[in-house]
């Protein structure tokens, strides 16, 4: 059964670190190498020194160096542990891709990790061994849950409204402006038994942080193997999670548009003929984003081809016929599944040398097509939250980059220690 609890978190002390604008960051997996270098140069307290560590001056392990940096921050008073178990409220103010301002509200709590026979925390993405091994090594070295798993919950009756409304009662305890353009505000609030009582029997859906979640479970299992499965709960039986309600007005899911690089053997006329067997293909000089977004049907894409113009695609066939029946209906209903398996694999027969990328900014994708850096770009609608839930419940992992939740949860607002003092 789902269980959450308050915890004694570690938080930065701005009186020691200086402005948290130079300290708190988005998650490690959205920070490029160039951004990592720029952030590291901002401050010796910046989170990239720990979440994207480099080997120490003695040439030792990067993970051991991250642990040493973290302990140095604690020793110097820049990172302090709260004296009472608490929840931590989060308010994020941001501007979306269309220039509109939004506010998203949530909170951080320690969440008990499910046992192998429990299904109350569900994910929709496939995970890979390499990033899990990387995060596991960092977790083992630091003994800290550094980055939160971003989870969604349903509260249609607004039972947690009064708990979240505490953000309106006083100024935030911590404020930071992260480089992704988001204002992050954090409040430490007392443990609230009504919040703990709300979650048993509920289901959480992972929005972002599938590898962090699998890492936490792996670390828990390894600790049990080393120390034995104790009857009383241990710190490693829990992980740091950030909660946002499905009903929150600031919840945004972006599409990751696909950009296909030029490759040998592409024949435009052959491609269009093959596409026409499954899609209605309409030339257009209109705004592809508006045309796709405003169409009420699924299976609608925008297509821009270098030197060949723009098109609106509407699928008119049976999904089972094009996609096969080896995957379930929740997966086949996804537009990204129709694009990946239907267009890329079955229609285009993507050759081994072909590559495609992901771009949440449509203007950037179209600029690449216009310049010839990309052969074509496919414009998608965002995946709907009910589709995310359906795939998670059916254990049908979505194609890679099927969702892009923005903003990401900040890293460095609060840490959950995997040990007791």
The helix tally amounts to 15
Low-pLDDT residue spans: none
Shape: globular
Beta fraction of the residues? 15-25%
Give the averaged pLDDT, no decimals: 95
User: Roughly how many Å is the radius of gyration?
Assistant: 23 Å
Largest sheet: 9 strands, mixed
Report the structural category: alpha+beta
Number of strands: 21
How many domain units? 2
Q: What is the terminal-to-terminal distance?
A: 28 Å
Give the fraction of residues assigned to helices.
Answer: 25-40%
Question: If you had to describe this structure to a student in words, what would you say it looks like?
Answer:
- With 421 residues, the chain is an alpha+beta fold.
- It has two domains: 4-252 and 406-417, no CATH class; 253-404, Conserved hypothetical protein from pyrococcus furiosus pfu- 392566-001, domain 2.
- The protein is built from 15 helices and 21 strands.
- The protein has helices at residues 14-17, 33-42, 48-51, 62-75, 129-142, 161-164, 193-198, 210-227, 268-276, 288-294, 319-323, 329-332, 335-347, 362-371, 385-393, and strands at residues 4-5, 10-12, 79-81, 86-95, 101-112, 121-122, 144-145, 149-153, 174-177, 183-190, 204-208, 238-245, 253-254, 257-260, 279-284, 300-305, 309-315, 356-359, 376-379, 404-405, 416-417.
- The strands form five sheets. Strands 1, 4, 5, 6, 8, 9, 10, 11 and 12 form a nine-stranded mixed beta sheet that branches. A six-stranded antiparallel beta sheet has the order 15-17-16-19-14-18, with helices on both faces. A two-stranded antiparallel ribbon has the order 2-3.
- The model has no long low-confidence stretch (mean pLDDT 95).
């Amino acid at each position: 059964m789902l269980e959450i609890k308050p915890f004694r978190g570690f938080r930065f002390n701005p009186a020691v670190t200086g402005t948290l604008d130079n300290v708190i960051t988005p998650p490690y997996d959205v920070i490029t190498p160039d951004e990592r270098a720029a952030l590291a140069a901002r401050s010796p307290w910046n989170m990239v020194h720990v979440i994207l560590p480099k080997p120490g001056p003695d040439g030792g392990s990067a993970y051991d160096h991250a642990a040493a940096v973290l302990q140095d921050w604690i020793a110097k008073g820049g990172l302090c542990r709260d004296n009472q178990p608490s929840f931590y409220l989060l308010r994020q103010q941001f501007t979306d891709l269309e220039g509109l301002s939004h506010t998203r509200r949530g909170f951080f709590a320690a969440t008990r990790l499910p046992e192998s026979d429990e299904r109350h925390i569900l994910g929709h993405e496939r995970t890979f061994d390499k990033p899990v091994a990387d995060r596991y090594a960092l977790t083992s070295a630091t003994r800290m849950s550094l980055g939160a798993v971003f989870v969604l919950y349903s509260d249609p009756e607004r039972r947690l409204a009064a708990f979240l409304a505490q953000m309106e009662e006083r100024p935030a305890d911590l404020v930071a402006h992260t480089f992704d353009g988001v204002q992050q505000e954090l409040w430490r609030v007392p443990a609230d038994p009504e919040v703990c009582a709300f979650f048993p029997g509920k289901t959480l859906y992972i929005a972002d942080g599938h590898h962090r979640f699998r890492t936490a479970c792996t670390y828990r299992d390894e600790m049990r193997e080393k120390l034995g499965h104790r009857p009383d709960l241990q710190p490693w039986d829990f992980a740091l999670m950030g909660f946002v309600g499905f009903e929150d007005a600031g919840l945004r899911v972006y599409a990751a548009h696909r950009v296909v690089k030029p490759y040998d053997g592409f024949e435009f006329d052959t491609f269009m003929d093959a596409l026409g067997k499954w899609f209605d293909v309409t030339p257009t000089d209109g705004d592809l984003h508006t045309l796709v977004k405003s169409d009420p049907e699924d299976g609608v894409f925008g297509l821009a081809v270098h030197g060949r113009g723009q098109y609106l695609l509407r699928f008119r066939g049976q999904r089972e016929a094009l996609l096969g029946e080896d995957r379930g209906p929740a997966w086949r209903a996804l537009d990204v599944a129709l694009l990946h398996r239907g267009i890329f694999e079955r229609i285009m027969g993507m050759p081994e040398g072909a590559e495609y990328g992901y771009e949440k900014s449509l203007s950037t994708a179209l600029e690449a097509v216009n310049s010839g850096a990309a052969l074509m770009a496919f414009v998608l609608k965002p995946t709907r939250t009910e589709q995310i839930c359906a795939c998670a419940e059916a254990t049908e992992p979505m194609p890679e980059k099927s969702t892009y939740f923005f903003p990401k949860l900040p890293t460095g607002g609060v840490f959950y220690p995997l040990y007791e003092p």
